[in-house]
Amino acid sequence: MYNQDRTVLISGASRGIGKCIAKQILKDGHNISIGLRDKEKFKKSAFDLKIKSNENILINKYDAKSHLDAKKWVENTYKYFGEINTLIHCAGIFKRTGLNFKEGEEKDIDELWKVNVLGPWMLTRASWKYLCKSKNSRIIMLVSMSGKRSKGKLAGYSATKFALMGLSQTIRNEGWDEGIRVTTISPSWVNTDMASSINSLKKKDMTQPEDIAQIVSKVLELPNSCIPFDIPINCNLES
Ligand SMILES: NC(=O)c1ccc[n+]([C@@H]2O[C@H](COP(=O)([O-])OP(=O)(O)OC[C@H]3O[C@@H](n4cnc5c(N)ncnc54)[C@H](OP(=O)(O)O)[C@@H]3O)[C@@H](O)[C@H]2O)c1
Question: Domains along the chain?
């Protein structure tokens, strides 16, 4: 088994899956650089109180809709840690925008696209030269089962997750010879704020974000020759 302390950029760590992953990888001994929309709000959270004395954490302003934020976050991180060899893309939004959306809901499609697809794209692009330096980098994308099959009427969300899966495959192709390995994580419902409106399943029966954090922790231990490209996760049978 291969192991190394990594320098990880993680988005979406204020809540949900990203927060659980951030806590876990910190526990594993990696350096982490967190990108947040609201740094002030985060400082008041229990998570921040626990970590604020550590030198292996950097907190940056990051809105996935801002390409400039992505660039600044990457450059600050490189300046602080002297390396970047892992990206974990957890920032994402969910909207119920359907095929026949109402007048005015075009803006929801635009936002889904900017946060769920262009956000990870621009952040990956901004980090690329540093990821290539390491020859042993990792990129983990929180995609979704909605990026593998379309269920129900979630045209907007599903289209962005299929696009993110396509983007991830291309990143894998382009990064392979540089030692960059990509893993997409594709869960169905996970017990976070994003799934709070789901009544068809009890919260305890959904996938728990702490369990996804365990999977990520394990993937970061593995060598270039043993990285799964996609990890589908079901909490209920889809037949
Ligand atoms: N929960 C599920 O059932 C489920 C299933 C499959 C896939 N996923 C995917 O997993 C990822 C994480 O989901 P989650 O369940 O942890 O969601 P969540 O609890 O709703 O958290 C979403 C995270 O994304 C951040 N975010 C949203 N818009 C942003 C923006 N414009 N710029 C920067 N950060 C932004 C949020 O930050 P703020 O606190 O600032 O809002 C928050 O940290 C998403 O990509 C989601 O699509 C989730």
Answer: 7-233 (3.40.50.720)
